[in-house]
Amino acid sequence: MGTFHQGKSELHGITVVVDTDGPEIFVGRCDDVDDRGVFLHDVDVHRDGENGRSKEDYVKRAAQLGVWKKHDHLVIPNDRVVSIRRLGEI
User: Fold this and answer.
1) Which of helix, strand or coil describes residue 50?
2) Distance in angstroms (rounded) separating the CA atoms of residues 14 and 88
3) What are φ and ψ of residue 57, in 5° steps?
4) CA triple 82-36-10, angle to 5 deg
5) Which of 2, 26, 51, 57 is the most buried (most CB within 10 A)?
6) Which pLDDT tens digit goes with each residue over 28-86?
7) pTM of the model
8) Where are the domains of the chain?
């Protein structure tokens, strides 16, 4: 269950992992998901292979240790989103 606010998605306020069709994967606090994309706050981004870690290795580490914010706000366009998962379920 998420924090419910009028007009926001069910993931509002939840830390999520957004995988893309490219090398990037994002972890951040979801503000909203709509037909434009996924709106995140306090976002970390990882590129596949960066620091010798695959996307999945990065996500496992993020689930254990947390992330370091690199961006205050980002929007990931829907046409790039492959999946959205709750970090707490990993």
Assistant:
1) helix
2) 9
3) -60, -45
4) 75
5) 26
6) 999 999 999 999 999 999 999 999 999 999 999 999 999 999 999 999 999 999 999 99
7) 0.90
8) 15-89
